[in-house]
What we know:
This protein is α+β, with helices and mostly antiparallel strands and 171 residues long. The chain is built from six helices and four strands.
Amino acid sequence: MMRSKMLLMAMLVLMLSLAGFGCAKKAGGPGDGSGTSWEEQERARLEQERLLREKLGAASNELAQMVHFALDSSNLSAEARQNLTRKAEILRQYPQIKLIVEGNCDQRGTAEYNLALGERRAQAAAQYLVNLGIGADRLSTVSYGKERPLDPGTSEAAYAKNRRDEFRATY
């Protein structure tokens, strides 16, 4: 009899404990104290990103404008510097944007040579932007060498299209 009372009492305590821990409110992000769920926070972040993309409009086209180079060169032409100056103005206007500079080469030369040349081209554009006041922490570079030609042709016109830096904005 005493044993059944103890068992009954233990079950009662267990049930009351479980009821106390049952339906807790969803917490927000880790330690944010906002009371909103991570799904709501992510929706809000994505909405901000969408609004930013809308605001960029024509500016995003200018950020994507390529810079072209002469054969075996990583020197920036006057036209390239003008293009990069406009990119710097946009980046100053939108400090949340980061830019990836992708260096590319034409199909001539070895893979190793073209990877190094593509890196020098990407670095030249990034350094120019830094010199115009854009933080280096907002820029990253990558070289694709001759692996991503725009024009697979073997004419000088095709090669000229492939000697370029491409720019990809991230948020």
